[in-house]
Write a structure and sequence with these properties.
The structure is a single chain. The chain is 74% helix and 0% strand. With 156 residues, the protein is an all-alpha fold. The protein has one domain (4-152). The longest helix has 31 residues, at 4-34. The chain is elongated, with a radius of gyration of 16 Å. The model has no long low-confidence stretch (mean pLDDT 96).
Length: 156
C-alpha cells in the first residue's frame, strides 16, 4: 500500500513536530539576534505581504499567524514528500536510520528553499537570522521529522 493517501496520513505527526520544533528555535534565535521572538515567523509572511513583513517585529494576525500558517503548510508538504519517498527505509523502525533519512530530507528542503525557489517564496527568516541560526532552525526541523516518523511506527 504505497499510496499518497498513506503518506499524507503518516505525514501529520512528522510535519507537525517539524513545524513546532523549527518554530521554537526560530523564535529563540529571533529573540537573541533581533530582540523579537516574532521576527523570524513574521518574515515568512513576506509570501503575501512583501518585504515589509521581513521587518515586522511585533505579534500580529497579519504577520505572525500568516507566517506560521505558511511555515506549517510548508512543513506538512515536506513531511508528505519525506513519508512518500522514504517509507521503506522508515518502516525498518531503526532510530539511527530514521534520523539519517530525516537529515537528508531536511538538506533537500534547505537546498530547494535557497537554491531552487524564487526569492518571493523562500522562507524569509534568512532575512532576519544569521547562517548559524538558520542551521539550527533546519536541524530542529529534521529532529521533528525524525521524531514524528519514528513515533508513527512504534507499536502501542
Amino acid at each position: 500500500m504505497d499510496t499518497w493517501s498513506r503518506a499524507l496520513k503518516q505525514s501529520v505527526l512528522p510535519g507537525a513536530l517539524a513545524s513546532l520544533t523549527s518554530t521554537l528555535v526560530l523564535a529563540a534565535c529571533g529573540k537573541r539576534e533581533t530582540g523579537s521572538m516574532f521576527a523570524g515567523v513574521n518574515a515568512v509572511s513576506h509570501w503575501l505581504w512583501g518585504d515589509k513583513a521581513t521587518r515586522a517585529d511585533h505579534p500580529s494576525l497579519k504577520h505572525t499567524l500568516v507566517g506560521y500558517l505558511i511555515h506549517h503548510g510548508a512543513s506538512m508538504f515536506w513531511a508528505a514528500l519525506f513519508e512518500k519517498s522514504c517509507r521503506k527505509t522508515l518502516d525498518k523502525k531503526e532510530a539511527a536510520t530514521t534520523a539519517t533519512v530525516a537529515a537528508a530530507a531536511t538538506a533537500v528542503a534547505c537546498f530547494t528553499d535557497y537554491q531552487l525557489t524564487p526569492h518571493r517564496f523562500r522562507p524569509g527568516f534568512e532575512e532576519r537570522l544569521s547562517r548559524p541560526s538558520l542551521l539550527m532552525v533546519y536541524a530542529a526541523f529534521g529532529v521533528g521529522l525524525a521524531a514524528g516518523a519514528y513515533l508513527n511506527r512504534q507499536e502501542c
